[in-house]
Specification:
With 255 residues, the chain is α/β, with parallel strands linked by helices. Helices cover 45% and strands 15% of the residues. The protein has one domain: Rossmann fold (3-Layer(aba) Sandwich), CATH 3.40.50.
């Protein structure tokens, strides 16, 4: 029987890259999207390309009932769960302390913190029956660094790092590990609509010279999700092109 990974928000970008990384290594894949057809289409693609079992589910991370229902389906369809990756996020763009509404607050916190909490809870219940597993949350450099207009996102990602530490402590006795990937800028379709000048300006901020691609985040998730990191728990793996080590905005001093 293949091991099973469950990834939220896995129909494109980083989530899809993580799904493909595990699928090519023989994992069966459960994945979610907000839309049933998108999730099922991606699952069919993975099944056909990699010869593994994959099932797509519609998931509303703001609904605990939806989370419980989907995990019950995963338990029924796969019979086990070895890795959970919390990838979906509400980016909370252009929401600052003065303009944030209660609706904004609930939307960002419910997805990024509450939703991931209950996904972790449901994952742990299945993993405990298996004798162990790994929970990997996709965090952000925003957990420790603030910029204007991301106050709720920053708060949610800070809470997520603290949550994962608690998961590691409380679930360790069951053979369940929990870790966070601290991600910096990741190339998505939003980068593709930038001008070359805008892209160059953004990349100039990073000591590594460019943003991460989904495949690079997937490599980190594979490390944390598998026995490659068998004694790693409660930690943060930073994949951020070096942005978080810069005391001041990074500036090249050479050509």
């Amino acid at each position: 029987m293949n091991k099973v990974i469950f990834i939220t928000g896995a129909t494109k970008n980083t989530g899809l890259a993580i799904a493909e990384k595990f699928a090519e290594n023989g994992y069966d894949v459960a994945l979610t999207s907000r839309r049933t057809d998108d999730a099922q289409k991606t699952a069919s693609y993975l099944s056909e390309k990699y010869g593994i079992q994959s099932v797509g589910y519609a998931l509303d991370l703001q609904s605990v009932d939806s989370i419980k229902d989907v995990f019950a389906e995963v338990r029924h369809d796969f019979g086990r769960l070895d890795v959970f990756v919390g990838n979906s996020a509400n980016l909370g763009v252009d929401v600052d302390i003065l303009n944030a509404t209660e609706e904004d607050f609930d939307s960002v916190i419910d997805v990024n913190l509450k939703g991931n909490f209950f996904c972790a809870q449901q994952s742990a219940m299945i993993m405990k029956e298996n004798g162990g597993g790994s929970i990997v949350m996709i965090g952000s450099v925003h957990y420790s660094q603030a910029i204007w207009g991301r106050v709720l996102y920053t708060a949610s990602k800070g809470g997520l790092v603290s949550l994962v530490k608690s998961l590691a402590v409380e679930l360790g006795e069951f053979g369940i590990r929990a870790n966070t990937i601290i991600a910096g800028a990741i190339h998505t379709e939003r980068w593709d609509v930038q001008t070359p000048e805008q892209t160059a300006k953004r990349r100039a901020q990073y000591p590594a010279g460019r943003e991460s691609f989904g495949e690079e985040i997937a490599n980190g998730a594979f490390y944390l999700g598998t026995d490659l990191s068998a004694t790693v728990t409660g930690t943060e793996l930073t994949i951020d092109s070096g942005i978080s080590i810069c005391l001041l905005p990074y500036k090249k001093h050479y050509e």
